[in-house]
Specification:
Helix 8 runs antiparallel to helix 15, helix 9 packs across helix 12 and helix 10 (about 185-205) crosses helix 12. Mean pLDDT is about 75; it is low at about 305-345 and about 360-375. This protein is an all-alpha fold and about 375 residues long. The protein contains 16 helices and no strands. Helix content is about 75%, strand content about 0%. It has helices spanning about 5-15, 20-30, 35-60, 65, 70-95, 100-105, 110-120, 125-140, 150-170, 185-205, 210, 220-250, 250-255, 255-270, 280-305, 330-375.
Amino acid sequence: MNRGQVYAALLAVWLLWGSTFLSIRVLVGQVPPLLAAGGRFTVAGAVLFLAVGLKSMRSEGPGVREQLRGRIPRLVLLGVLHFVVANGMVSLAEQRLESGTTGVLFATVPLWLIGVRALSGHRPRAVELCAGAVGLGGVALLLGFRTGPLGPSLMVLAAACAWAVAGFLAERPERRPNPAPPAGAALASAVQMLSGGVVLLLCSLVSGEWAELDPDRVRPTAWLAGIHLILFGSLVGFWAYTWLVTRIDARLAATYAYVQPVITMFLGWLLLGEHLTGAGLGGTALIIVAVAWMVLTRSRDGVAKAKPRPDADDGELTAGTENAGNKNPGNENAGNKDAGTENAAHERRNAEHENAEHENAAHKNENAENEEAETSP
């Protein structure tokens, strides 16, 4: 792995996810929101799971069942947080909220992530706080401090918080050592999307959305938006995001929140004829500065932390957090040497203690003999 892979994944997340809010806005205008989100993630998860399963059957590596052993509950939890809580609330909110406003409110993910990490005992660095403040300032300037209805706006903020919690949990190593081989980013993404999509479909059924669906209202634009969300938003975008979170750093992956309002503004100008203002151009400049600042400070640490698996075939991207504690790449031999050195040191100390005990025993024997000699008649 090199910096090129990190930057390619970042570009995929930045560019592809920047257009998803516009597609969601188009889709939920014609299809019930929970049903639209559930169908999207279920289809994307099933396609990705099938592709991973076929590749696993053709390779000599561990199978899907072996990789998922003991990890399904954790992936299901992440899927519920990512797709049911976060994406579900975004889909509901965009029925009454503009896509641009939704994007700027969801851009608070990096700040939520810093707060979640601070609550867990990780003290944020000054550069993270400064970059976050500059980025959010640029987002606010970009959209001219637009506000929407209070209820949907609070819903999007809650969705951003849930997404940050999911990202924080995804980057943490397993609490207990798992003997199973680590699951790849593609497999982890597929299980999360499948679990989240199925739960969303059940929620849609219980809420009565299926009865509200009117096929005559579904126009070709909704089909195009759904296909875009499945292929680029879910299959490629979320896969790249999962790889960044598990192999690099969740804070670096969260920088997409600074770029997506720029993409939304550009698409609005290109497709809807919206005007570019001075505030919009100034906000874009601040966002670029914040993203560059965050990337330059985090990518070096992320690349140093990433560890490629030697048994990964064809450069497959694997979820490195499954290898609990292996945060420094490739120094296993050095670790073994260090362990051997420590063992040798312990042996020398034990030998010195034994020699000291023998000397003490000898001194005690001499003292006892002297006392007997003095007290004997």
